[in-house]
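Possible race condition, two jobs.
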Amino acid sequence: MNFRRDHSSLFYFFRYGELQGLNKQETAERYGKEKVHEWRRSFDIPPPKGESLEMCSKRAVSYFKDFIEPQLKSGKHVMVAAHGNSLRSIIMYLDRLTSQEVTTLELSTGVPLLYIYTEGKYMSRGSPVGPTEAGVYAYTQV
């Protein structure tokens, strides 16, 4: 089986600005727990000199629409691996979530999500329980 690997900086991690390199405890000590929680769980409030989820969403969804959707429309199978906030942004688009709903969306690291594109719509097939089931799930749920 041949795979083509594409790489885009538009799927890079969330840009934390002045918080870059700080751990959660250091950040809370410097800015306060409430402010850190606001930055982490809001859609449109960025950390100082950083990026909000809304800003991340604009670049990630733009890339998805411009480069991934055309491949899906042509019948290709596509796997997307990206940072959590980029993935949350794409899921917001695919599942038509509101900005409020996406702020509560939790993704498990390393657990794949399967979407089927057919007749111009995305159908979520959920998530297999573990990596050993992922292959079976992807091949049997067509």
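Job #2 (started ~2 s after job #1):
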Amino acid sequence: MLSDWQIDACRNLAELAPSGNRDGMPNWIYPCQCTIRESNPMSKSLSKLLINGVKLLTLPMKPYRRANTRSLVSEGLVQRLSMAVPGGHLDFESTTARSLHDANSITHGEPETVRWIDQLPEGSVLWDIGANIGVYSLYAAYVRNIRVAAFEPGAASHAALCRNIEINKLNDKIQPYCIALSDQIGADYLYMADTGAGHSMHGFGQARSVQGAIDYNFRQSVIGYTIDGVLEAFRLPPPDYIKLDVDGIEAKIIKGGGETLGRYVKSIIVEADQPPERIEAGEINKLLDGFGFRLRPGGGIKVRNLIFDKQA
């Protein structure tokens, strides 16, 4: 049962917050000590209002009960976003606002990626390297009935990936692995500016991404493998197709997969964030050319992803 002062305080909070007027508010209510991203200003203001309301209502509780109650509220507010895809829908569970961003644009955020997946034969094997929360792994498995090995080293994004596989009942089609791929086998750090689910621009083995130096807040210890090494060590189904999106070490990963690329892979899509004439995309182009791949016409000049096909 709420006390009179709690009820009055909540009423005052609700009246004052929408206008942005905080005059007369106790110092311990504001500012909200949370980080809210990927939202418009109204969403941010409303979310801060709700968060501070919960903090206010639970303030008189003993520490454990207060923490437990807030945790239960947090669990109860975890969101699922349902997105229409060919043949039905996919659900994505969000623990962060950022993890909703890519899911919300699943069919239009990277149209060349969706078109590429739509052309893959049913029953083929896709390796999704840099799967994040699993947007395209889920799409490939659900829409095209493709078997997917999804590699995501970031702990929070990998947890979200596993949860999304679970709630969509795709565990028989998608196998998630919390390892990094590179040009050598060994332990190293994954440098992250933000560890939350859905975030990107991390760097494995280097504090740099395609955008430059990473102002990292955390280094996660991660086991790294090469494409050839992980295939040999764990006897995974060899990939017919590879989707590669790792924000900076694409060339290293390709170098570590020469045997697999030359023997099994028919097509690979690489997010390079730059046209082929740039240095990194040029290196990728040269490496894949050596393994028998050619850049698909129109696949990398004005789009985000480069598509390479094996030549007969």
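The chain has two domains: 4-76, 83-310.
Logs attached separately.
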